[in-house]
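User: I'm curious what two different proteins look like when written out as structure tokens. Can you demonstrate?

Assistant: Sure. I'll show them one after the other, since each token string lines up with its own sequence. Here's the first protein:
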Amino acid sequence: MLDNKIVQSQLEYTDQQPEINAKNESLIDTLERMNIVIVGHVDHGKSTFIGRLLADTGTLPKGKLDQVKAMCAANAKPFEYAFLLDALKDEQSQGITIDTARSFFKSEKRNYIIIDAPGHIEFLKNMITGAARAEAAILVIDAHEGVQENSRRHGYMLSLLGIRQIIVCVNKMDLVDNNKEKFNAIVKEYQEFLDEIKLTPLAYVPISAREGDNLIAPSESMPWYKGGDVLTWMDKCEKQASKDKQPFRFPVQDVYKFTEAGDDRRVFAGTIETGTISDGDEIVFLPSNKEAKITSIEGFNLPKQSSVGAGYATGFTISPQLYIKPGELICKKGETPAKYGTNFKANLFWLGKKPLVQNKKYKIKIGAARATVYLKEIIHVLDASALTTESSKSHVDRHDVAECVFQTLKPIAYDISSDIESTGRFVIIDDYEIAGGGIISESVDSTSRLEDVAHQRQFLWEKSEITAADRSRQMEQTPTLILLAGPRDTGKIELAKFLEESLFKSGKKVYYLGLPNMVGGVSSDIPEGVEDRDEHIRRLGELAHLFTNAGMILISTISDLDTYEIKMLKTLLDGDQLIIVYCGEYKNQFPVDSIISKADGEEPEASIQKIMELVEAKQADTNYYL
């Protein structure tokens, strides 16, 4: 087998490279693969470290080294091992790594995919993107400059991303005369920081990437170090357990409905994050808690499959047919389910240009789910540069790390990050850009956002001397929101207008509020084309509260309503002031008061009569004006 412990000179490497590459190719199918990310402060030598590692292990493509040397000579630049990686023009001109780059090399034990993450503070978002795919990390610190601000930030980010296998390389030891005391001082300082975030590296290794010291073999320049070279420690990193063995998690990205040639399938499509699933398995959708059974596993232009596992993009059909929105998380019955709710504690790294503040509306994305989210509480903020913790800070600044409690408008399904990584991570979107990310550490049992809003509104409400009962008696009606729900293009709007006219002629104080009225009025501040359904429904609930408080009957329509949106409206209304009429083919999505289906051949007059009888029955149940 290839002996990667032999340090070769550049002439030996160039001469023997074809033979080495041929031996390496033979290992591809037999060795396991590991992703490892290289991080560190800018100019601390990450690219040099990777370039030298690739050269010394004989992994570079044939002629690559000579090509880079020739390019340096043509531009009158001294050769640097970092140039082997810096393929981007901007990076070579500025001497910094901007984006993550991937390199490949092999040891005797495994195939490595090395992710070179940028160290400059302005490119932390790119660093996080790269590190999120890693199973282990190498953190590089310059022995001459010592521990820097980003050395701490990157350490915290690795912890935040759940990466616990970390090798700290103290680089450029040749610049401090390979001094043992200097190395020990950096180890002591950095470990004190890591202790604060409960992180213990596998090893601290003194290296000189430029000279190749302690990379793939012990260095004669540092005889006082007996801890093993970097490659030895890389091979000691443990491969993550197969995701197939974890509980099943499948975020629903979309639902495809087929109609041609008698094909009536509804396929729930997405990518399996963890676990496996087979035909006949019983599943549960979260947060809706709807249950079904897998009837088939679907794939584009693929032979029929009876089971499928983690990492595969696929689709399922189920029985019975259920109305499910994209964003739900499928779990397998009998396994540990995901958690769901509206409140959770998280560790967060903030990258937004504007601070993260309380009571501002943000968007959160977990898996395929997107939801409106608010910062409810800041537990503490860690300043990575100063190594200080603040528990009274009212906001989270750019590049700050914080432990916070978040609150969504609607329940969202998730896992605790330490249990299942991929469904325990999230990003926060502010002003159409990813502004922060983090991991969920704990569920929090608390009231929902809308319950808090409704409670505060009730506390601050300036009440009239005319009571709701007084208005009902005078108007001889029970204030109500009549909501016509169901799929699009089922005649809801026409029916709503017809209902308004009928109720008005019968003497009721009634008003029809159409969606265009909302969009052009109270929701005109929401930019056109921006999906913000939660906010539209919240505003509809607040308007309905005003109308019913004034004793009115309000009529509105909404497509694709779900259980939680009904709960949102009921929370914002006073009491049970909601009548739901479903228009279209009803599939037991949620409890309704009446069903109007064109398939039944029912005339509009009969449908209106049905709804008016509901209104009369509701009024008979109340003693407001009797």
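Here's a second, unrelated protein for contrast:
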Amino acid sequence: MYFKRVFQSFIVGFALIVLSSFSDSTPANYAGSVKMPFKKYGYSARQAAARLLDRFTFGAKPGQVNELLKTGLDAWFEQQLNGSFNEDNLALRLAQYTTLNLNNETIVNKYMNAGQLLRFAVKNGLVNKDSIKGGDKKEYQQKLRSLMQEQGFKPIKELQSELINQKIIRAAYSNNQLHELLTDFWFNHFNVSITKQQCQQYILTYERDAIRPNIIGHFEAMLEATAKHPAMLEFLDNANSVSNSKAKKARGLNENYAREIMELHTLGVDGGYTQADVTAVAKAFTGWGIRPMIHESPAKNLFERTAKDNLEKRGFVIEGDFLFRADKHDDSAKTILGKNFPENGGYKEGREVIHLLATNAATAQFICKKLATRFVSDTPSLNLVKQMAHIFQQTNGNIKAVLTAMVNHADFWNQKITREKLKSPFELIISAVRATNAEVQQPFQLYNWCAKMGQKIYFYQAPTGFPDKAAYWINTGALLNRMNFGLAFAAQKIPGIKIDLLALNNNHEPESTTDALNIYSNLLLPERDHSANILRLATMVNDDAFAAKINAAVEKNSAIEFDAFMEDAIKPRGNRTTEKQERNKNNQSIEPIIGMENNTIIAQVVGIIIGSPEFQRK
């Protein structure tokens, strides 16, 4: 019962802390260069360095505070913005992933999705289409496997595995951490999902070609790049959107992309647009599609037989894998957000809509609030968002300038909201790798844990992307799984993950569990006050059955009675054990750990720290 009460208090305290928020509205310094006012707000240089590492990396590595101080805070942030740190080591780690440099045409003809493979098999007489449903499933699958081997096709899961693996490796080992954070942020903003068969083959190149090159440039460039990429064209169905007057089949105008480009990508749900605007935008984007890429398909054969000059004369536009089909475009006049677009606008019309949306004041407000929510607070102040939006509009949506304004603003340095943000499961696993200098040999094992904790990266089905607020990630099962991850990770029970915990402490063994808690708290979470957290964790470290209890709780997913948590959390201080009494009690139970076999106590200490509320916050 005592263990349960302590653990309940531990998690409720965490939940209450991460859900609180506060924002200062002091005006910011908006010079073009980075000028962080950290001293003015009570930070030492070391504390400011740790703050930057918390928010602009996936987590500090051992000794990185000292490295940052040598570089200089302002210079380090400038280099992070520019992505100018050396990446030779990362390149070596990524060299094993052969799909990373493939183009879309190679991918769609080598890593076929299920629908393509079936059509190919039927076309070549290997499968009888009419007998698939009633036939032998195992025989059917064997025929497809044989076909893939004969034709040199690869399972699409291999493509997806490399996509996932490279993301984990980049996040863990890139020296240009801000670029990795921004790639993750913007992919989430312009979300597409592997769960949709039509777009799953294009997601690797979508992140590589549409998102990554534009993360610190002008927002409009990224908006256009995502709009024209096959992954987005398929995910939100714009590749099949045709003028109703030119539709030869039942399929005609599709408003999915038009709605989401306004609601999710630019203006926001309160951006002042109407249903009439949605319909008009959908019409403006009719004809925006994908050039035929599947070998020996009728569409590709026809496309290749038609001279490019002839297509261009007819108003077609070919840019890489993007194809504007003038014969499918709605040529009528349109009015969008009060602006008139004359008839026969063609391809240029869609680009003008993108410019109109990208430069709208509501877009500046919406995008800057999302950036402030990601990097500052779950509830950013109106002043901070207003100032960032002002810079957004002044610089035509220059993301680098907006981020500079954000880090120069008083709100970023407001100590009342320091470590208010909660790590997502992906951020948690990567921060654990970085904090321990872990060697990741099987990245997909970490993905499995990430999915178990509720974040199946690249698989989020809604176009909204994963929510970026603490409340989304806080629930009983998720918190238990986080603690279980910490214990499994530190104990090296995750295949393909190697850690040398003693090396982090220069191969010196701590003298006691309290000593271990102090040493590893400071190593894993530099420049923080760990006294209160160590008091909470000491009881768990000294409970020999702690790991077993967490495992049992995860399996049941019901060990935490939330009402009891809340009741305990709001009890008057006089009804609780005093910190001094708790400290004395814990000291009485401390056992020396020198010589413990396989350093199991050190692993438990590190695992509990990683699973603790303090490590979850950033």
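A detail about the second structure: Strands lie at 288-290, 317-319, 322-324, 334-336, 339-341, 439-440, 497-498.
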